């Protein structure tokens, strides 16, 4: 009798842990799968590259805008910003020509304000930390007499990553009519 | 009292000799156990409430009434002892039962406990439904059941944690993948990026390049590469200049000097294109299409006039039938 009870008991208690074990294993399998899925997503090189691309673009747009913005009343602040937005050769050029340029702007008493219309990254070497950007820019120059002129320009910028930040290392206007037949 | 239980549980044969003694002390301990023994207290307070009161006590009463059964109780005990060897819990439960039964039957007879045990064991099968629930529930007061329940709880907890963790991972992966930078395939998908840039650059060059006599080619290209708003824009633009073109004999050649893909998401793309547009006004003479003296003069004055203009366009393109078509053009 007791044996019957015991059997019943066993019959009742065994399958439950077995089922629970199976369910737990299934849960473990699911968790493992989800974990590696997440890991792959988190360590996706494409995604990391995309993040770098966007970082380069926003830094590039900001730097191009900075370099085309200057208020003669806040020369030092503006020029400091120029220098902090650039690196390499461009930075050296700006630093060495600073005095002269500041004098010119003081004389002209102009206020330039730039606005980025659009920008795109055309090249990105994630490992070397180099990128090229296109930026369409509208620069508004306010002369000493208050007359404002708008000028659209298209800029080509080269960015270099220094200490984890993208900075402009070269900037120039996209040449117009370089190979035109005319 | 506690020391006697383990003895019964672990050593099956011994309890029999030792059991006789318990009955005499029973009356005394019967008062003691409930307060002193935690397990007995459990048995007395927790389980008996739910299970015992119904079946075993009633049976214990029956045991008091039907005395012949105690004879069988010896057999039952041996059986129980056997179970004690095989399984510790039933013995434990038997032991636990013995006490409350003893206390319950103490008033009836000194041999009551054994009768109660016998009853508890034997009627177990007829009243399986009643006793059975008692057995598993009595088990927790033994040593293994808490472990079993614990293990069960641990398993359930582990499973729940794993499932939750898995869901968390999935959610995290989804978040990562749906982030704006990851969804934009500009440059990350080099092939598609090169392709869309090339297609759009070529398309713009074709539709904005024409000769005074050959606007048809540009318009034909426009029909194949333009769509939506861009097509309508182009129509209105061309309707305006078509007549002038022939008059002014303008040759326009357009070249995409730089093309940057701002955004590329599946079949949608946004590009920034720098164009060079070179317009060339040919002198009307020599081509045999000059119209009159006054205009001749104009054309002579405009002769060989070549201007190159820079243009910046933001272009939206859509992939249609494996071809990129421009759906919107904005001059910047």
Helix/strand-derived category of chain A reads alpha+beta
Q: How is the CATH topology of the largest domain in chain B named?
A: Nuclear Transport Factor 2, Chain: A
Globally, the shape of chain B reads: rod-shaped
Number of helices of chain A: 6
Q: Kindly provide the name of the CATH class of the largest domain in chain B.
A: Alpha Beta
Number of strands of chain B: 4
Structural class of chain B: alpha+beta
How would you describe this protein?
- The complex is a heterodimer of chains A (182) and B (332).
- With 182 residues, chain A is an alpha+beta fold.
- Chain A folds into 2 domains: 2-42; 45-173, Nuclear Transport Factor 2, Chain: A (Roll), CATH 3.10.450.230.
- Helix content of chain A is 52%, strand content 30%.
- Chain A contains 6 helices and 5 strands.
- Chain A has helices spanning 2-13, 15-42, 45-67, 75-85, 88-96, 98-108; strands at 70-71, 111-125, 130-142, 148-162, 165-173.
- Chain A has a 5-stranded antiparallel β-sheet with strand order 1-2-3-4-5.
- In chain A, helix 3 (45-67) runs antiparallel to helix 4 (75-85).
- The longest helix of chain A has 28 residues, at 15-42.
- Chain A is elongated, with a radius of gyration of 31 Å.
- The model of chain A is unreliable at 1-12 (pLDDT under 50).
- Chain B has 332 residues and is α+β, with helices and mostly antiparallel strands.
- Chain B has 3 domains: 4-142, no CATH class; 149-178; 184-331, Roll (Nuclear Transport Factor 2, Chain: A), CATH 3.10.450.50.
- Chain B has 17 helices and 4 strands.
- A 4-stranded antiparallel β-sheet of chain B has the order 1-2-3-4, covered by helices on one side.
- In chain B, a hairpin with a 2-residue loop joins strand 3 (305-320) and strand 4 (323-331).
- In chain B, helix 15 runs antiparallel to helix 16.
- The longest helix of chain B is centred in the middle third of the chain and has 35 residues, at 144-178.
- The relative contact order of chain B is 0.08.
- Chains A and B meet through helix 1, helix 2, helix 3, strand 2 and strand 3 of A and helix 8, helix 11, helix 12, helix 13 and strand 1 of B.
């Amino acid at each position: 009798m007791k044996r019957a009870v015991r059997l019943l008991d066993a019959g009742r208690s065994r399958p439950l842990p077995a089922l629970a074990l199976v369910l737990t294993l299934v849960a473990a399998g699911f968790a493992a799968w989800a974990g590696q899925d997440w890991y792959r997503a988190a360590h996706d090189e494409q995604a990391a590259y995309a993040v770098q691309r966007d970082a380069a673009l926003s830094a590039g747009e900001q730097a191009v805008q900075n370099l085309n913005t200057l208020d003669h009343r806040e020369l030092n602040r503006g020029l400091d910003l120029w220098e902090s937005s650039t690196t390499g050769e461009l930075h050296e050029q700006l630093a060495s020509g600073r005095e002269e340029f500041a004098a010119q702007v003081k004389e002209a008493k102009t206020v330039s304000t730039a606005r980025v219309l659009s920008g795109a990254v055309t090249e990105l070497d994630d490992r070397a930390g180099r990128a090229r950007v296109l930026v369409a820019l509208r620069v508004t120059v306010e002369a000493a007499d208050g007359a404002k002129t708008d000028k659209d320009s298209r800029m080509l910028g080269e960015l270099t990553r220094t200490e984890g930040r993208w900075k402009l290392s070269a900037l120039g206007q996209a040449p117009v009519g370089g190979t035109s037949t005319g | 009292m506690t020391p006697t239980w383990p003895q019964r549980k672990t050593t099956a044969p011994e309890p029999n000799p030792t059991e006789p003694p318990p009955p005499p002390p029973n009356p005394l301990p019967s008062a003691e156990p409930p307060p002193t023994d935690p397990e007995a207290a459990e048995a007395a307070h927790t389980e008996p409430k739910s299970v015992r009161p119904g079946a075993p006590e009633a049976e214990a009463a029956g045991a008091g009434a039907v005395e012949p059964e105690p004879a069988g109780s010896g057999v039952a005990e041996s059986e129980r002892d056997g179970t004690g060897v095989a399984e510790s819990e039933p013995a434990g439960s038997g032991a636990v039962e013995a006490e409350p039964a003893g206390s319950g039957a103490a008033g009836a007879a000194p041999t009551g406990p054994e009768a109660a045990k016998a009853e508890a064991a034997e009627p177990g099968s007829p009243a399986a439904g009643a006793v059975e629930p008692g057995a598993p529930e009595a088990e927790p007061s033994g040593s293994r059941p808490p472990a079993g329940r614990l293990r069960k709880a641990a398993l359930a907890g582990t499973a729940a944690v794993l499932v939750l963790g898995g869901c968390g991972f999935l959610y995290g992966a989804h978040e990562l993948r749906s982030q704006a930078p990851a969804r934009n395939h500009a440059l990350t998908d080099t092939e598609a990026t090169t392709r869309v840039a090339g297609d759009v650059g070529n398309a713009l060059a074709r539709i904005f390049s024409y000769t005074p006599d050959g606007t048809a080619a540009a318009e034909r290209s426009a029909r194949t590469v333009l769509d939506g708003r861009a097509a309508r824009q182009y129509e209105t633009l061309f309707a305006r200049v078509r007549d002038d073109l022939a008059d002014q004999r303008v040759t326009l050649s357009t070249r995409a000097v730089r093309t940057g893909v701002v955004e590329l998401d599946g079949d949608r793309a946004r590009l920034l294109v720098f164009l060079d547009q070179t317009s060339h006004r040919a002198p009307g003479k020599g081509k045999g299409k000059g119209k009159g003296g006054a205009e001749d003069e104009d054309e002579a004055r405009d002769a060989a006039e070549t201007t190159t203009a820079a243009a910046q366009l933001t272009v939206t393109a859509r992939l249609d039938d494996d071809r990129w078509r421009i759906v919107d053009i904005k001059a910047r």
